Amino acid sequence: MDTVFKIKRITVLGAGTMGQTIAYLFSENGIPTTLYDADNRVIDDMISKRGLHENLKLTKRLETAVSESDLIVESVPEIFNIKREVFLTIAPHVKQHAIIASNTSSFPLHVLSEGLPFSQRMMLIHFFNPADLIPLVELVKPAAMADAIVNDLISLLKTCGKVPVLLKRDINGFIANRLQAALLREACNLLQQGVAEVSDIDTVVKQSIGLRWALNGPFEITDLGGLDVWEKVLTNILPDLDNTTSVPLSINQLVNNNNLGLKTNKGFYDYPQSASNQAVLQREKLARLLKDIK
Ligand SMILES: NC(=O)c1ccc[n+]([C@@H]2O[C@H](COP(=O)([O-])OP(=O)(O)OC[C@H]3O[C@@H](n4cnc5c(N)ncnc54)[C@H](O)[C@@H]3O)[C@@H](O)[C@H]2O)c1
């Protein structure tokens, strides 16, 4: 990439579900990228599975992984102590101007960055799975961070085909996961109340609102339907919706029985094929859908 960006090298920490596709995204868009994982087997496995782009370097050494990079994207497990440990370990080794970002799904920026030497250069860059396909990236920055730094990052993400949205506030769960959580809570509530089977609730979403959502957001849909109509609908339905703050029982029970979804071949559904096959199939379908939408 003939780049005018100040971000000339990127390091991704954690080569799991997300880290791998974040590293593919940047390297395949011409940016020299280094990918590190604490588990050597993950790196060895990656080398054997998918041909690596010439811009992608895999490493098993954390300090050298970060020392040359202008942007570091942490994508280790969603466990606070693991993330903090990674930040504390890399602190003495990162470049002075480097942006340190987390791909956390749920920790607010101020909680992750508190007391870290680079807290003023720390951001949240929330990708979606798979990061090299799904366009949206949610961004959260510290109030004092210079616009020029963020604008440089936004331009870079756009060049890689992403659609960045910069939040005005540092809020738990960002926008997309809050919306997803609200829908999932009500889906579980309908299941619990015996209104419909799992597959029927999924069908309702896929064959109606899901199709719409690929083209229109909630406000556009409300405008299309008529605000007066939606005012009445909300008046009638809102008092009936689930508003509990604990995790739905159906999810608790599955997790307690180690039924974690695709990765254990059983979740809300049974998966007869191996989990990796299902993931590959889903990825192919998603890629086709995105191509059609464009
Ligand atoms: N899975 C998703 O759909 C999704 C979407 C958006 C954001 N996220 C967030 O991305 C992050 C990673 O999630 P994931 O789904 O890729 O998890 P994952 O479990 O698939 O991958 C985590 C990787 O981190 C490695 N790791 C563990 N400790 C490490 C350390 N100290 N240093 C370096 N590597 C270490 C593990 O070996 C593993 O390969 C989490 O914060 C998660 O909330 C996940």
UniProtKB/TrEMBL annotation:
Pfam families: 3HCDH, 3HCDH_N. The keyword Oxidoreductase applies. NAD(+) binds at residues 14-19, 37, 78, 83, 105, 129, 263. Keywords: NAD, Oxidoreductase. InterPro entries: 3-OHacyl-CoA_DH, 3-OHacyl-CoA_DH_CS, 3-OHacyl-CoA_DH_NAD-bd, 3HC_DH_C, 6-PGluconate_DH-like_C_sf, 6PGD_dom2, NAD(P)-bd_dom_sf. It comes from the Bacteria. One of its GO terms (molecular function) is oxidoreductase activity, acting on the CH-OH group of donors, NAD or NADP as acceptor. The record marks 126 as: Important for catalytic activity. Residues 10-46, 53-168 form the 3-hydroxyacyl-CoA dehydrogenase NAD binding domain. Gene3D superfamilies: N-(1-d-carboxylethyl)-l-norvaline Dehydrogenase, domain 2, NAD(P)-binding Rossmann-like Domain. Residues 173-271 form the 3-hydroxyacyl-CoA dehydrogenase C-terminal domain. GO terms for biological process: fatty acid metabolic process. PANTHER family: 3-HYDROXYACYL-COA DEHYDROGENASE FAMILY PROTEIN, 3-HYDROXYBUTYRYL-COA DEHYDROGENASE. Belongs to the 3-hydroxyacyl-CoA dehydrogenase family. This is 3-hydroxybutyryl-CoA dehydrogenase. It comes from Parapedobacter pyrenivorans. The lineage of its organism: Bacteria, Pseudomonadati, Bacteroidota, Sphingobacteriia, Sphingobacteriales.
